Amino acid sequence: MIAWKLPWLLVLLAAVPVWLVWRRRQLMREAVVFPPLQLREVSSRTIAGGRVLLALEGAILGMVVVALAEPMETHEVELFEEEGIDLALVLDISATMQAADFPPNRLEVLKELSSELVRRSAGARVGVYAFAGVSMTQAPLTTDTVAVIDLIDALSFESINHYRAGGTAAGDALLLATDELLRLRVQGRDQVIVLVTDGESNQGIEPQLAARHLKEQGVRLYVIGIGQEVPVKVWANGVPLSGDRGKQLESKLDDAQLRQIAAQAEGSYYRADSSEVLTRIFEQISRLEHKPLQAQDVVVERSRRAEVAFVLAALLALWFTLDGVLLRRPLR
Fold first, then answer.
1. Nearest to 136 by CA among 95, 97, 177
2. Higher pLDDT, 226 or 211
3. pLDDT of 293 higher than 70
């Protein structure tokens, strides 16, 4: 369907016939009745050519008006965004995640598991929230999974200043992710938080309280525990990390705390000790209710100015050819 950006300009087309009548009268007045030198008699071909020239002038003026009105070709398209869920990854990057009981260390395993989860979550909006003693948004909720994976890969021990923001505040991170999910909630679309941590939360709000809040808001929770239940010494970049009283920091998986967090949210807990952990998570997520982010009618516009300009250029070329070459007036 053809539409116009400035349709009111089309009223100028009514002035073209008026201009043509005026133009013809002007040409008749300028005609030389008895020229001093007449090389040949005016032929019917010349008279017809003059009429064609006048018609071309009218067509050129009409095309100029059409070009000014900016014709558009419009199509109505119904757009659907891909079905999926809202998925928030809450990732522990505290100092204890440098423990090497999962080589090369827990953080690298966390990044590998999280990236694989994003790759398999086709159609989901994914956000990434990292935490130690403080929480931060590493990636806002988005469908750009490639960018999310890159931002997960960019996480490191240096992402947070552990001397100023050390410790683990899993509860605060859960609340941050929950607030973001609720702010962007789509009715009927399931929302999921996946918490990946070693479970040693020692700062901020109690993660069990945060988990209870998730349940009240209808946000599902999956908890993945990374680490071993026996204490391991923590190194970062080849340097031992100091803990309380100057001793080298030791860490172990707080399996009991993570189970309590999952229980408070009526969620599920998985211990990342084999590749089967991801399979079990995806089997549950695949049964969640999926809904398109939005479905809306969009009008797609395509400008036709290029075609109008081409026709106008062709008319001008024809006019100059007729007036300057074929219908040139005889010398007098």
1. 177
2. 211
3. no
